Here is the input.
Amino acid sequence: MPFNVVVATPSTGQCKSVYAFSLARLVAYFSQYRVLPEVPEQSMEFLMLEGSGISSNRERLTNMALDRPTMTHMLWIDEDMGFTMDTMHIMARRRQPIVGCNYRMRCPPAEFVAVSRDKKSRIATTKESSGLEEATYTGFGFCLVERKVLETVPKPRYLVQYSTTSDAYTTEDNPFFVAATQAGFPCFVDHDASKRIWHQGNLNYMWDEEYSQLNKGFVKPTDSPQESTDGK
Here is the structure.
């Protein structure tokens, strides 16, 4: 079976230069090295939609990808992410339906996005972290999803929900991971791949840096791990 990936980016029209540079290097690496060593046939296609409606853009991008009958995987990359050229290869070789990267939010104290299986804490990627770790949730900043997951999770896949606990709305990726898990597709964080990406805000937020000292003057996000994943 070939490896045919659609790289999808919902854009607000403010694509970061680090994203464009990283993507160019990914293409060059992809053209030289097989994603799966035993699979000689592989292809890559790019889709980008610009607009302020992130949920709508993700749904439309998913529909466009599924319209390509040979597509086997969808790689979400947000336009404010930087990444090394081999990141996707590492994730694909895990051979799991959903593999995402754990990255820091782009404002101090820059907590990690991934949430533990028990929904009680954030998952940290540390020097000792390696391999896969099952999670309740990780963001779409850099996330590889197999076709069968997208075909199984029903529309609306990215419907923003409201949490009565935190009096706040979830992000659009949260409901997707909940629905995918309920459909039998667990979400995995790849710690090795996570160490190869960074999130660009007012500075590059890296997995191995400490940002709590920059917290003065910033408002901490209101959603706790439990509140951001309960879907109420």
Summary: Residues 217-232 have pLDDT under 50 and may be disordered.
